[in-house]
Amino acid sequence: MLFESRPASRKSPPIDLSERSAIKGLWSFTYEDADLFKRLGRTDSLRKCLDNVTHPDFRFGVLSGESGCGKTSFLQAGLWPGLESRGFRCLYVKLTERDPLAVIRQGLPQQTEIPQAPVNELDFPAILEATAGGEPASSDNKGVVLVLDQFEQFFVHQRYKADRQPFLEALAAWYRQSGHPVRLLISIRKDYVGYLYELQEAMGYSLGPNESFYLEKFEPREAASVLRVMAETEALGFDEGFAQELTAQELASPRDGLVSPVDLQILTWMIKAQKGAERKAFDRSTYQKLGGIEHLLERFLQQVLQARETEARRQAAVKVLLVLVDLESSTRAGVLTLSDLQCKLSGLLRAEEAKEAVHWLSRGDIRLVTARHQEKESGYELAHERLIPALRRLAGKTLSEADKANQLLDRRVNEWMGNQRAARYLLRWRELRLIQKQHPYLVWGTKRAQKEALIAKSRQRRNGGLAAVGMAAVIAVSLTTMYYSDRGQIWLMERDLRFLAQKTRDPALLKKSALAFFARNHVQKALEVVERIRCPQDKARALQALAEAAGQLEQSEQAVAWLKAAGEAATGIKDSGDKARALQALAEAALKLERSEQAVAWLKAAGEVATGIEDSGDKARTLQALAEAAAKAESWRLAREIADMIPSVDGRIQTFSQILMIWAEKEALPAAKKKAAS
């Protein structure tokens, strides 16, 4: 998710079309385009929305509309500056795949003077209270409107109700506070409006006519007026009669007779982008040269991609675009970083090829991909969802047979393995023929053995005939018999746990699942479950728990291997305090496994990391714990060195005292054993 605010200045990208151009292609109009946007046919809709949102009784509302109707432009270039002109403050948030509540916390300090640390401790109503500044409404400060755009992304990427519940409860808590100074407006795609029943149920609200806004596409006459303005601002010729005819007969949808703003933008972009010395204009001659309106977006994609120098580069661009699409739900896949994209495209494109394609697609004169600035690394998303149907059609024509075979094999091997290698997930005859035909060009990757096994099994089924049918019958009888046995029930529960573990990202649940699989001696499956944990700190804890479990079962080699893997995961922890404590915990686990050298190495690394902790109290506590752990490992020199790093005199006194007591206990233990033996 992105938290956007009006920038003080912006560096212009190297493009032919300026920031104030009326031709945006697939990009949205922004706050800086407010004066231009006023001329583009949304005056009545904007006035109605502003009147209702700024009404004293307004608290919550929904803006909906079809994909491509211009909701984001309406909010950024229309509603946002309109609210400010009426004395309201607007906070604009665009949802993607990330948790909305966490990123609102992260983004608030960027638009206010509130420090980050206190915000992290606030719940959603308190965050909004802080946003309002605790000041009563006045003529100069009439309140705050929080705008959540692309709200459908919340439902697309938080697929399970349990994942959505925390944010829904936060919204409900805010709504129950009557007289709250912050108002909320969400924008959602028309085909996702039905999902709002969960929000309605949680908040206990029922929208009235003044709280529900539907942004229509343009009437043909409105569309013609918009084309006139775009032509004027870009110094293009304009034939009024032809524009009226074009919008009514060609651009208007046969379903509802309305014109999509995206279609207007693409048509204008293609006219503007024509090469040659001939006059560029909205007239019949120019239109005929473009080939008419049929499959406009697909031709737009083809024309843009044609600029790529080679077929390989065109295919690289298409592959990047496909990764940015959730084909299952026909929505954008969210904001993906360059490293995310390179990972998803591994085996299909080299890292350098993926990077070059991403940067080309996000260029100002291309605009098929939009760059989004995030906290740590910039991300990228598809410029507009209206591209998806055209991209689907184009991908079928552009991807080579080898690409299709590789994508098919990757998908089918995952399905086969994810369903216990069931026979019904083997390759069908046509799929097997395509894969065998492209065998020299297959990308095997890390699953070569599994892919070869799938192909071999599929070939056996094709050649087996009646033998395969008989084998299936035997398997069916065996499974039926096993189903009613105790072992069968345990096997079924293991199968269900494998399936369910693929659907959660909760580190605690994944850790518990991994321990269960290890207890059942499914070592590889336990490791696969741990690999689903994204947070390095949580992954290190899970691997440490597996190592301790292996140690209890006297599987020392497995325990050490997992402990080393946990150490590698811990190196990815960013926070100095968390990293130091994680290394300390691993060192203590290594001592239990009698791996003192590894324990000392981790403690030394933890001591170096702990020096970077900013909070003096936390730093002192962490160093004291590390010094004591080093003493228990009988690394007395390291214990003293770490203790010397403690900034306070009191802390060093306490730590040296504790180290000496540990020494005394260790000295007294042999004497006690000797006395007991005598």
TrEMBL record:
One of its GO terms (molecular function) is helicase activity. Keywords: ATP-binding, Coiled coil, Helicase, Hydrolase, Nucleotide-binding. The keyword Nucleotide-binding applies. It holds the Pfam family nSTAND1. InterPro entries: nSTAND1 (IPR049052), P-loop_NTPase (IPR027417), TPR-like_helical_dom_sf (IPR011990). Transmembrane segments: none annotated. Residues 24-421 form the Novel STAND NTPase domain. Residues 539-599 form a coiled coil. This is Nucleic acid binding OB-fold tRNA/helicase-type. It comes from Nitrosococcus watsoni (strain C-113).
